[in-house]
Amino acid sequence: MASEKVLAYLDANRQAHLDQLCGFLRIPSISSQSDHAADVRQAAAFVAGELKELGLKVETIDLGGHPLVYAESEIRPDRKTLLFYGHYDVQPVDPLDLWDKPPFEPVVKDGYVYARGSSDDKGQVYAHIKALEAYVREGEDLPVNLKFIIEGEEECGGHSIYTYTEENPDKLACDAVVISDTTLYNASTPGICYSLKGLCFMEIRVTGPAMDLHSGSFGGTVQNPGNALAEIIAGLKDRDGRCLVPGFYDAVLDLDQEERDGFAALGYTDEILKQETGAPAAFGEKGYTTLERMWARPTCDVNGLVSGYGGEGAKTIIPAKALAKVSMRLVPDQDPAAIAEAFKRHVAAIAPAGVTVEVVNLHNANPVLVPRHSPMMQAGMAALEKGFGAEPVFIREGGSIPIVGTFQACLKSPVLLLGYGLSTDNIHSPNEKFLLENFWRGARTSAMLMAEAAK
Ligand code: BES
Ligand code: ZN
């Protein structure tokens, strides 16, 4: 059987594929930092080079930001078409001193490869490429037409992928979009993800006096921007973790009973959460289990908070300004633009007098829901089961992949979220890692998906 040769090839080449992945991981493709622009380009060239080497027709598309890599196999009308999406850019690495090893010098230890981008998302993208390689090197006919669109601006909020998708729906037309940029349920249980959270990212800028003031000379005479910002933040949520922005929950789709039962059957506990996060206790909105809050309830969180003096010793000042980054993770059917407006109105209503408060909407992403029961979901399930040797479960994710909503709207094809990462991979954090077994099993899954989707 064709697929057996393909799987045998992947098994025989595990070490070689890992070595090649390390080459990809050595490229410091941090998309949000302009001094890494050449590295980002080099990562694009790496992806383009591999796909070309495997006989695909490859284009590197420059729309003003970091390049998109588009590639396609021979397109035969008698075959179904899969479009693989992923990103070759990575998050910044600071704080650098918390890394055990330099982030762009991959190290293999305890069954993991450690490097920035290993899990998010280079390792997962590379699994797809190695699956294609297996068919090509074994001289096996591809069971489906393949298209790849791999971007370099996922982590920095760039627009190239949106523009390209909106302007080229025919070129990207497919029977399913396949994305590996999420996680398994846990190390022994693969998951197929059917919902991603959206995002509404806000910045609150509070200004008071023209400069930092001596807190003895002027304390008690003017509003303190630090205190004012703390008051605003305290007014965003109640003590039970419920967001106080009026209308915040209006559009939230409630979980249905099948979903609640499915979550409960997974057996996730607060003990597991404490182990995974190091937090002393679970906390969140009353009336929902931890997994329900993690996957299906919207949140409102400070992501950054700066005001006054934070250095060694005491410095007696009234700070001139204070700044907070606050993001809300959204769930279907919340609309980020509407939430941003409601947030602005709420902050204006609760802000104390005596300071100037500016609220800016920095970044939005739509939440995503995909139908759980479709032939392509079945193909994804079957591929995961063969690739990982275990029965997959339905999961949702708290993270966001902003382009997915645009794919759904412009391409009108089902989206398959087959994650090969783990929630403990430290993505966006020091010591990011990727389980080698998941890399190899992921490549097997991608190869099997090509066969299953053809059925
Ligand atoms: N791979 C992540 C998305 C993700 C994270 C999925 C965790 C599942 C679990 C992606 O690269 C990412 O980080 N997305 C950003 C998007 C945001 C900046 C709009 C995110 O979720 O913060
Ligand atoms: Zn990612």
Topology:
Elements: H1 2-12, H2 14-25, H3 37-53, E1 57-61, E2 68-72, E3 81-87, E4 107-109, E5 112-114, H4 118-137, E6 145-151, H5 160-167, E7 176-179, E8 191-196, E9 198-207, E10 213-214, H6 225-234, H7 257-265, H8 270-277, H9 290-296, E11 299-307, E12 317-318, E13 321-330, H10 336-350, E14 356-365, E15 368-369, H11 375-388, E16 393-397, H12 403-411, E17 415-418, E18 433-435, H13 436-454
Parallel strand pairs: 3-6, 3-7, 7-17, 8-16
Antiparallel strand pairs: 1-2, 2-6, 4-5, 5-18, 8-15, 8-17, 9-13, 9-14, 10-12, 11-13
Helix pairs in contact: 1-4, 1-13, 2-4, 4-13, 5-12, 11-13
Ligand BES binds at residues 120-121, 154-155, 181-183, 199, 363, 365, 397, 399-402.
Question: How is this structure best described in words?
Answer:
With 455 residues, the chain is of the alpha+beta class. It has two domains: 4-196 and 367-454, Aminopeptidase, CATH 3.40.630; 198-252 and 298-364, Alpha-Beta Plaits (2-Layer Sandwich). The chain is 35% helix and 21% strand. The chain is built from 13 helices and 18 strands. The protein has helices spanning 2-12, 14-25, 37-53, 118-137, 160-167, 225-234, 257-265, 270-277, 290-296, 336-350, 375-388, 403-411, 436-454; strands spanning 57-61, 68-72, 81-87, 107-109, 112-114, 145-151, 176-179, 191-196, 198-207, 213-214, 299-307, 317-318, 321-330, 356-365, 368-369, 393-397, 415-418, 433-435. The strands form four sheets. Strands 1, 2, 3, 6, 7, 8, 15, 16 and 17 form a nine-stranded mixed sheet that branches. It is globular. The mean pLDDT is 97. The structure holds ligand BES and zinc ion (ZN).
